[in-house]
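Shipment paperwork, digital attachment
Item: protein structure file
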Amino acid sequence: MRLIELNINSFGRFINETPMVGLPNSFVLFYGKNESGKTTLFHLIKSLLYGFTPANRDQHPYNPWEVDKIDFSGRLRLDNGEEIEITRKLLSTPRGQLLQGNNAIDLRNKPLPYVNHISTEIYEKIYSLRVEDLVQLQGKGWDEIQDKLLANYGSHLIRNTREVLKELQEEANSVYRESGRGGFLIKKLEGEIKSLKKERLEAIKRQQDIRENQQRLEVINNLIEEKSLERIKLKQLTAKVKKLIPLKGLLKDLEATSNSFINKDIYDDLPKNPLEKRDELNELVNQLNDFIEDKQRMINLKSNKVSDVTDYEKQILHSKDEINEYVKNAGRIQYMRDSVEKLKTEINIINERIKYEGKKLLNEEVNNEILASIEGLSLSQTKIAYEDYRKVKADIDDATKSYEFLSNQSINFKIPSFYVISAIAGTIIAAVGYGLNASIITFLGVVIGVFGGGGYVTSKLLKNQLYKQKNDDAQIKALQKKLEEATIKLANAKEALFSLFRGIPLPEVVILNIDEMVLSGIIKIKDDIYQLNEKQKLLKEKEGSLNKEVEGLQNFLNTLEITDTNENSLYSLKEQLDGVQKKLLVNDGLIEELEALKEEESSLNKKLQEVLKLLADIEEKLKILGNGDIEKGVEIFQLNNKLELKLRLIEEKLMEWSNIEEQKKELNQLENNEGWIFQDLQLEKTELVMEELEEKLQELRDEKKEKQLAIDNLLNSITIDDIESQLLMIQSDYEMACIKRDKLALLTEIIKKAEEEFREENQPDVLKNASHYFNIITNGRYSNIYVEETDEGTCIMVKKAGVLAAQQVTESFSKGTLNQLYLSLRLSLMDHLDKGFEKLPVCFDELFINWDKERLENNFKLLKEISHNRQIFFFTCHNWLAEQIENTFNTTRISL
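Attachment content:
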């Protein structure tokens, strides 16, 4: 990827810069003093590739305060030869566009699709090399690249050979030792084989004891099962009887209580406390009547407070949006008036400045005709006409000198020079007098000019007569003809120059000898005239807009019959609108309250009818219960109430029984089928039989426990099969341990040899490439770079040419060698990151200012090789370094 063109409209200190076209493909040199924008250019290149960071115009450090925007574009040539154009702008939001052939891609603030393989942090940290970068590794950028380097060197599954060899030795010592000392594996296995053979004899006797105890245990289990079944049956029957005796009593009480109720249907329809309920209902009737009267009184009060709205108020309310809009725009009308007055003031200032500059230039007041002439004056045509005049005048002077020389050779007669001086002086004085409108000076100049011209002509005629008498040379005649033609051209040039200044009262001598001060004055007046015209045009537009706004306001106020059309009338109308809206708001609230009050009144009347109906129903049922007597009906209600409480207690007790219906069935079954008599004596006999069964069962359990414990103890001991199995396993382990001992010894020697060959042949591509760069930059002094794992961690090893042993890089190395090593690794990392992708440009900022001549020349060799595949941007403020780069790379600096 090569940057071939850069156009900067605004970025940092660069505003409207000359486009950088045709940038070199390989090496681009930027030269400028400190603070001239070198760092700014690097961030511009980064922003071109990756977008803006931060993407906020107010926070971006390179947003120029003069224009408050960032705007630049560039053209790139990709590695395949295709050219693309990128435009980026940071306004209120970041914008970006990529032109690729006929396709336009909206980038917004995204990176170019060709640089996604490198993050912006990596590019800034790795692809920008400064002089301080050669002595320290920085931040996140180097951490990420170091991770990539180590990942390329191997993976997490490949371990350090030193650690592997150490572990192999430790494992070999745990299997076998030549000295025989310590508890190594083979010695331990031989002892275990001997012990297992002894345990096999003891296991044979334990098998006989287990068979005898198992036979007695089987008899005990049969007896326990028989006695347990008998005990369970008795226990279940006893528990069932004990459980059903209370149920039988509750069912008997329930039946008796249910038969004692009087007129139970009428009782069930009455409330729990009918007398209290009747009193409560009467009190509630009185309260509801009071509430209804209060609601009616509030309805009448609210109805009287609702206000009427007049037709004029309705008209104002109808025009609410227009009134609010005009009130909102009242400030804009005042702003427009202030803008018009401001423009008028600026126009007056420019007029005064034009008058001042005109008087200073022309020494008189300027009028519109003079200003029109100045405005129409073309500076480019004036420059061309003035150059033509000077050229013709120079030609006349040269021809005159040649003519005089030839005349002196042939004739000794010489025309007095004071005639020529008098003629020229008289012409200048007459021109000045004419320009100043001074007739005396003009007359004096004419007299002097006639005297000088007449004397010159007379002398010339005399000389010509003598010349004809003595010499008729063809060369002199040719010069005369040339002078005549040049004189005509001079007159024409003067006329052309005077015609450009026609209408501008400048003296001819000033016009013929115009200087920078006069031109500067004319330019100032022309600029002021242009500004004046623009201001007047803008004033006309703003006055038109103001009149349109004021006319619209006046027409609106007239529709409301308001004759006074100033802003105070508008604010008064706004106050009336607020008053009407407030009145309507109050009315809406009152109407809403009236509807709520009427709804509440209706609800109270409905509730009153319900209460009256409930009160009449209670009194009617009490009469029926007491055979026409309410008091007697109350007594019967209280009696039934007591019976209901008793019945409820019985039912609550019955509810405590789960599956009550099944319990009733069991009760009937015991009484009818099994002939059970629910008495205490029968329960005591049954419980005595159960105790005897329990004692017998406990004796059998104790014996069973003893036998089982004996069997368990015997079974917990190791069996013959286990011993035989263990013996076979240990003998197999013993053979494997001997084999493993031999394998570990052989593997240790193989790894040592393989590690030595691998380190020479299989170093990663990054280090191979870095070794190549390091060899170039050190002029062949070093040949290889390695990464080696030690007890202290990862370290870098280098190998000198002609030396077999590699050397670890430490602080004892010279600063220059460390710088060369770091630069080689850094450039190799760039190649690694770009592999298979676009080669991104690299930026060097004062990278080699501290390098000696030899190292600098070697480094230039490396940069030449790098620049074949990657574009290099080099920034420096040192002239000597810039000159050396120009000579070496055949490039031309770009001065900032």
